[in-house]
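## retry 2 of 3
previous attempt timed out at serialization; input unchanged, resubmitting
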Amino acid sequence: MWRPTRYGEEDFAAFREAMEASSVEAAVIHAVYLINCASKDTELRRKSLASLTQALRIGDGIGAAGVVLHPGAQKGEPLGPSMKRAAKTIAAALKDSEGCPLLLEQTAGHKGLLGRDFDQTAELIELAGSGARLGLCLDSCHLFVQGYDITDEAHLGDVLDEADAKVGLERLRCVHVNDAAAPLGSCRDRHANVGKGEMGRRGLAAFLSEPRFEGLPATLETPGPEKKGPDEKEVATAKGLRREGLKRRGG
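## retry succeeded, writing output
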């Protein structure tokens, strides 16, 4: 829904206090899925800007590590103008907020979605002003269904080299950890529980133990055993796979 949540400074202070007292090291906000910064529809773009700006302001208030955004969709419109509309909206949201990073999520590769490869993500960042607050979020499932075979250490390393060359890994601020319920290169955004999908235990172990991800916030977006989202067992499984991956790497 579009209606923004009206948090105040007391709410922000309470959240920051709770974070400090917990074992949670970082909070990451995901912008609402209704947002389409690339839309040709002026009203939809206005709502998208308002929602994105609000998310960034909340991120400022709680000290979030970033706001993750799906950049937008062409909806049958030409790519060039869609990219420019998306970048203009993103730049406006950054201008009307203070310091929270905006993280463009690599999408699943479906035709018409912006950010479907590193070239598009790099172009979006450039069009939006190339500011330091513009960052990147990588999703293991999205990369896999885009056609990037990241199921072993060598192939994952090659993909990250490409990301570094085209976008810059200094912009990578967050990863999403999901197995894929659709095949390699299918461009279908279908998440599976870790180790239970097409990537499998070895693939997720390679992703979770990647040295260049060290210290980054990692978010599980899996269905979970009851299809109510990930639970403690899913977190424990992910941690176990990370240990397996580190052992294979000799760490």
